[in-house]
Amino acid sequence: MIKHKLLSLFVALIATTVLSASNVLTYTGTMDLSTGHTPLIVGATTFGPAITSHTFSNGTGKITCSGEITKIGSSAFCACPGLTSVTIPSSVTMIGDDAFFYCDDLTSITIPNSVITIGDNAFEGCSSLTGALIIPNSVTTIGNNAFDGCSGLTLLTIGNSVTTIGYYAFYNCSGLIGALIIPKTVTIIGYGAFYCCSGLTSIEIPNSVTALGEGAFYGCSGLNSIKCYAVVPPSIDKNTFYGVRKAIPLYVPKGSITWYQGDTYWKEFLNIQGMDDTAIETIKKNSDSARSKFIINNSLNILHKGNLYNATGARVK
Fold this sequence. Notes:
Blueprint: H1 2-8, E1 16-18, E2 24-27, E3 44-47, E4 50-51, E5 61-65, E6 71-72, E7 85-87, E8 94-95, E9 108-110, E10 117-118, E11 131-135, E12 141-142, E13 153-158, E14 164-165, E15 178-181, E16 188-189, E17 200-205, E18 211-212, E19 225-228, E20 249-253, H2 257-262, E21 271-275, E22 285-288, E23 291-296, E24 299-304, E25 307-310
Parallel strand pairs: 1-7, 3-5, 4-6, 6-8, 7-9, 8-10, 10-12, 11-13, 12-14, 14-16, 15-17, 16-18, 17-19, 19-20, 20-21
Antiparallel strand pairs: 2-5, 22-23, 23-24, 24-25
């Protein structure tokens, strides 16, 4: 017990980690055996291309990489106290689940344009991260709760290869300000994805999005406008925009105004306006059970049982 108490007093001063592609990595953090944590790295240890699970979790030591680092394993730096900065080499393609979970002293992170997947809870609880976060164009998946609670972030840029924004991905990132532009590759925004991001002032939702999860923009009370380029209103529920002022302008494709006004939840917005430049294809088809919806000359039409009707229900031909 005495030994454990003595070890628990050790607090490291070296707090910056640089992941070299093929060199030596040194990390020194707080050891606290009184809470049951055992340092997993002591002295020098050699690893292969992946930094494995819990490599530096509550540990201290030096790692020599035998080759290029390609993966940061799950919980590799989980709850590393005193860690303030991480530079990830361009050889890394995956940041695992919980990789930097609750590294609450981490102030900056650089994600290279080689990373494809950011795992679930990868940076959850990193409340000291500040400034702009750039998700590079290489990333396709932002995991669930990936940046949950990163309340110090102020600007967010999402790369143009992301297809999925996981649930609670940016939950309570209350420091985010300004415009949020969802890239045209995204199809689903998970529930609670931008929950209580109250500093956002505008959002743009591309035509590729088919569904906004429950509470996706819950509590985004600072929004002054929304642009939704989806011709067919994406699926939402009563809580998707809970706490968002419904008098703000909602801009939608001109030919889709009637559909938004007739949707169960989109119609709660009282100021739905048509956009002049909707970038709609001349003809776009979206299957919907027995009916098919078409965009012809920027106007929404429905084909039903061989007959074509416009958005007002009048038969076209």
